[in-house]
Amino acid sequence: MNTYSLYLLLLLLLPLLASCVGTKVYIVYLRHNDDDGIKTFEEIEENHVSYLFSVKKFEEGARSSLLYSYKHSINGFAALLTAEEASQLSDMEEVVMVIPSHEREYSLHTTRSWEFAGLDEELKPNQLGREDLLFKSQYGKDVIVGMMDSGVWPESESFSDRGMGPIPVSWKGVCQTGPSFKSTHCNRKLIGARYYLKGYEARYGPLNATNDSRSPRDMDGHGTHTASTVGGRGVPNASSLGGFSRGTAFGGAPMARLAIYKVCWPIPSKGKEDGNTCLFEDMLAAFDDAIHDGVNILSISIGSSSPLNYTQDGLALGALQATINNILVVCSGGNEGPAQSTVVNTAPWILTVAASSIDRAFVAPVQLGNGHKIKGQSATPYKLPKRKMYQLVYAGEVVNADVPKTYIAGQCLPGSLSPQKAKGKIVLCLRGNGTRVGKGMEVKRAGGIGYILGNSQANGAELTVDAHVLPATAVTSDDAIKILKYINSTKTRTAYIYPGKTVLQAKPAPSMAAFSSRGPNAISPEILKPDIAAPGLNILAAWTGGNAPTKIEGDHRRVKYNLLSGTSMACPHVAAAAALLKAVHPDWSSAAIKSALITTAGIINNVGMRITDASGNQADPFQFGSGHFRPEKAADPGLVYDASYADYLLFLCNHADFKSNPTFICPKTTPSIQNLNYPSFSFPNINGKVTVRRTVTNVGGKGSVYFARVEPPLGITVKVSPPVLHFNRVGEKKNFEVTVEGNGRAEKGAYAFGWLTWSDGIHSVRSPIAVSSV
User: Fold this and answer.
1) Mean of the pLDDT values across residues 300-319?
2) Does the bond joining 508 to the residue before it have cis omega, within 30 degrees of 0?
3) Residue-by-residue DSSP string for 128-157
4) Most buried in the list 77, 239, 373, 732, measured by CB within 10 Å?
């Protein structure tokens, strides 16, 4: 290439090069105009380019910097900008705010569960009673659930469309194709699929095609698992690796339609087992399309690593716009428990889900040489070669010479164990750093014959099972200490790990998962979060053919169904229940469906006691919200606490005046956050008497009379006025007030919990109450 040609090439590339120097992705939120709704997408895009052209030196640079133009989720766009350009845009009168897309801000929150919830899809329609929710909802027929996740593996039997009618005429979406994903992969079950890469590639560069597919295809597994939990068809004889949890796998709303929005991708230079990333701007684009496409419910098992202010939170912003179109957004609450104030996705227009267990265990006990048998759980398909006792060691005893003799030594981290010391032995490893399956892989690498995973104190008695690569079992923190004491007590320590087996009707259940993020709400403590709990521990659902059950690169096993744990698994359970309610009550608002689920949740386990955590301590509303979901009860809640988009805007006036909608102006005196018509009550830091107002709508029978019953928090007086509500007709609304006041016996600075229940003798409309005093 001669000098002149090189000069011409540089001249052509100059606008693009100039636009990329020192840039990052920003979301530009514009003021809403009444004529925006009638503009074509091309007109909106040209308008957005004009804003970029005003701060960039070249028109081509302005066009190339635009990633997304949003029309339905927000009025705005995502673009590559320098800090100076972002500042210039934020000074414009039409610009409400300019938000940077933060590094690694969002990630995924990684059968029997439906029977435990009271829904049994295996029963044929002629075996269901006319009052059964599955019968009344026709299995969620024609409700469209959008799945914002890592895509889908369309070949799974769970997504068969056999017996399903034509796609609903309300559907306006598309089946986006790509490598290994054809238009024929969509059907009458998977009615649409899209993927969103622009934000990801602006951050990380071109997608590595060996790690993922530039299409809606799921090469991770998470998206397939959550989608089949919501709407999977019945697949008999399904099980995880090794035959665990064998039975008919089905979703909660098996006749619902599924729309796939792939927004999560692998992080370059990290293994898939270490998580993934879901970019703010890509998720907003997915919201934009989902609203346009006509989904009824959105299931989103994604969240930030820590709570975000609503005006800076892409999930909260997108979900708020979804409420305009009466779309209920269901989100996972996060896996950062048991620490307090870790729950995310806490906006009141989002239904936030915590994770609990079900009545199924995967029993794999450990026999110690001293005659003691320790309870354990495992889903490994492998067995010890002989029924005999094997030498037992603690990982810290068999590490390489260069590994520091600290608590880290006992965690079986990659490369830490000595093959000379570990060969042929069962190794006790402790949880902490590294992955659970990765610890077993290290034991196998070092020649160990078996592996016991001991919980840390934080994990307590909660046992998460995995498809380990060698004979293995997991034990509670107390039992790990017992095993360690035995190891230290004798030089001839031996053990045997029994093969695992599935046990049903385990008790007590449900119990709250230790990993499930907890309240109080760090952004708005006046809004109680999480809202509700659902099964999220050791859940069986469909899996991708493009990834191992452990997600670890060196694991070449493939399965059709897999066991996973996380609030990610709890979220689609509630989304499916919401789909069933939408099918039964198509005219209900998203807030009414949310209220019905919250106020009918249960707080009693299968031994007749209050729900506990895995260690047996009584759980509270900061762990489970209103309780464990009960879809059958939610179909007939009696009363609902309704709310509108305008109510949420009024709520936001306490956080920031968006100024994005000129038809809505925040009042000079904003109402109390606590007066949002929410189906739960939270009173942080009270000093004296506090009164809040609520409105309930009768959706039960006409001529009904409801009486208030209060279980007050310890040290708190609660008064309800009026204590009796008379309803003459369905749809009638009644107001009441709740007043709380300390009575001198409350512990200062600590939360106490109680309940308000409205009952007409048929319905029990229960709301949790959380109060702290100063």
Assistant:
1) 90
2) yes
3) S-TTSHHHHHGGGTT-EEEEEES-B-TTSG
4) 77
Only one residue has tokens 């019905």, namely: 596
3-state secondary structure 188-207: CCEEEEEECCHHHHHHHCCC
Quick one: which of 326, 341, 308 has its CA closest to 317? 308
Please give the biggest Cα pair distance in the chain: 90
Total-model pTM: 0.89
Do 771 and 749 form a contact (C-beta atoms < 8 A)? no
476 vs 462, 469, 657, 662, CA distance in Å?
7, 20, 49, 57
Task: For tokens 């030089």, name the residue.
Answer: 491
Q: Tell me what percent of the chain is helix, strand and coil, each rounded to the nearest 5.
A: 25, 25, 45
To 10 degrees, the CA torsion angle through 631, 633, 638, 644? -20
Q: How confident is the model at residue 727 (pLDDT cuts 50, 70, 90)?
A: very high
| Angle formed at CA 72 by CA 66 and CA 75, multiple of 5 degrees | 55
Query: DSSP secondary structure string, 417-438?
Result: B-HHHHTT-EEEEESSSS-HHH
CA gap 321, 326 in Å, rounded: 9
Rounded to whole angstroms, the Cα distance separating 403 from 433 reads 15
- Compute the distance between CA of residue 646 and CA of residue 83 in angstroms, rounded to an integer: 33
Q: How confident is the model at residue 492, as a pLDDT?
A: 94
What is the per-residue DSSP string for 34-98? GGGGGS-HHHHHHHHHHHHHHHSS-HHHHHHHEEEEESSS-SEEEEEE-HHHHHHHHTSTTEEEE
| Spatial contact of 328 and 295, defined as CB atoms under 8 Å apart | no
Question: pLDDT tens across 226-240, in order?
Answer: 999 999 998 877 877
What pLDDT, in 10s, does the model give residues 107-138? Answer: 887 643 445 455 554 444 444 455 577 778 77
Helix 222-231 to helix 567-584 angle, to the nearest 10 degrees? 30
Going by C-alpha positions, the residue among 511, 515, 519 that lies closest to residue 680 is 519
Phi, psi of 106 (to 5 degrees): -130, 150
Q: Which residue numbers are catalytic?
A: 149, 222, 568
Query: What's the pLDDT at 245?
Result: 65
pLDDT in tens, 154-177: 999 999 999 999 999 999 999 999
Pseudo-torsion of CA 620, 623, 628, 634, nearest 10°? 90
Kind of pairing, strands 264-266 and 276-278? Answer: antiparallel
Contact (CB, 8 A) for 699 and 640? yes
pLDDT value of position 75: 86
Per-residue pLDDT of 625-676, as tens digits, reads 999 999 999 999 999 999 999 999 999 988 765 555 556 778 888 888 999 9
> Could you give the CA distance from residue 540 to residue 552 in angstroms, rounded to a whole number?
19
- 216 closest CA partner among 188, 184, 182, 266: 182
pLDDT for 460-510, tens place per residue?
888 888 889 999 999 999 999 999 999 999 999 999 999 988 888 888 889
